[in-house]
Amino acid sequence: MGPYYVGVIIPIVFTLIVRNTKKAKKRGVPVDVGGEPGYAIRNSRFASPVESAWEGVTTLAELFEQSCRIHSDMRLLGTRKLIAREMETSDGRSFEKLHLGEYEWLSYGQVFESVCNFASGLVQLGHQKGERAAIFADTREEWFIALQGCFRRNVTVVTIYASLEVTTVICGYKELKKLANVSGQLDTVKRIICMDDEFESDASLVSGSSNWTITSFSDLDKLGRENPVEPDLPLSADVAVIMYTSGSTGMPKGVMMTHGNVLATASAVMTIVPGLGNRDVYLAYLPLAHILELAAENIIAAIGSSIGYGSPLTLTDTSNKIKKGTKGDATVLRPTLMAAVPAILDRVRDGVRKKVDATGGFAKKLFDLAYARRLSAINGSWFGAWGLESAPIGQGYGLTETCAGGTFSEYDDPSVGRVGAPLPCSVIKLVDWPEGGYLITDSPKPRGEIVIGGPNVTVGYFKNEEKTNEVYKVDERGMRWFYTGDVGQFHADGCLEIIDRKKDIVKLQHGEYVSLGKVEAALSVSPYVDNIMLHADSFHSYCVALVVAAQPSLEAWASKQGITYSDFSELCEKEETLKEVSTSLLKAAKAAKLEKFEIPTKIKLLSEPWTPESGLVTAALKLKREVIRKTFSDDLAKLYIHHDSISKNTLFFLQSVQKS
Question: What positions belong to coiled-coil segments (predicted)?
Answer without folding.
Answer: none
